Amino acid sequence: MSELGSLLKTTREEQKKTIKDVVDDTRIREPFINIMEDGRFKDLPSYLHAYGFVKKYAEFLGLDYENVVWPLFSRECPKDGAISKSTTQEEISPEDYTPQTTETSFLENGEKTSKKPMYVFFVIIVLAAVGYAGYYLYSSNYFSTSLSSSDTPASQQATVVTNNEPTITFADDNQSDNSSYFNYYGSSIYDNNTDNNSLINSAEPAFVDPLFAQNIPTPVIIEPEKITVRFSEDCWFKYRTDKGEENTIDATRGTVLNIEFDKTFRVEIGNAIAVSIDYAGQTYDNFGRRKMVRILNYEAVDGKLELVR
Fold first, then answer.
1. How far, in Å, CA of 267 to CA of 218, rounded?
2. For the whole model, what pTM was predicted?
3. Can you tell me whether residue 43 is helix, strand or coil?
4. For residues 19 and 33, is the Cβ–Cβ distance under 8 A?
5. pLDDT top residue among 47 and 1
């Protein structure tokens, strides 16, 4: 019978504390608490775990660690190679017997490492801000506008406009000279030398000057993806798509549900064996046993459904 294990268990019971109370305060898992109270310290993952667990448990119970707990622990759980043949257990202090590491407790180590992600998160925010500022300046043509306005003389800019564009005559402009326009295109825009007023009153479609015509692409209509969900048994079912559609139903046997999405969707199944999904001529089922709950995220890739995190 372990004297230290009995001390820990008896003290806890005298203080009317449950194992759950110990777990909630020390964050040590229940199986490890039972191992310590049974005195099976060598069954713990390592000597470092045994040392840290016992010290934490003793502090929780308010026991005198150096004078009461440590002598029992050093005798019942010796560290291999830590004691020479000419030295007894009583001659070694707890400080000398502590494992040679700057992290004497895995709990303290957890507190130290938990601060590192804060610095990483701050660096990510700074990099994201710099990247966004660069992208904004690039997309707004700030640099190209500044260079063109400062490096190109006004006389050169005026020359470019004058040399590349002919004089344009519109139907209601009787003061302009048509000769430059006709010479540019090689023919008149009017049929049979029709005057300007007859063109305005004509029922024919208005002439579109090719200098100002724009190639407007034809809109491409993307058809949404579709799945069909079938239920062979009663089942609670919830889905959410990237189109913003979300719904929860209590489906019965024989229910058929059609769902549209663009790229991804998420389903939550209350009875895994009851559901099958049809997509692009393929059937996806075998999601699990009866009354098993499944949460699945799918993405449509090349005519197939792939599970994603």
1. 36
2. 0.32
3. helix
4. yes
5. 47
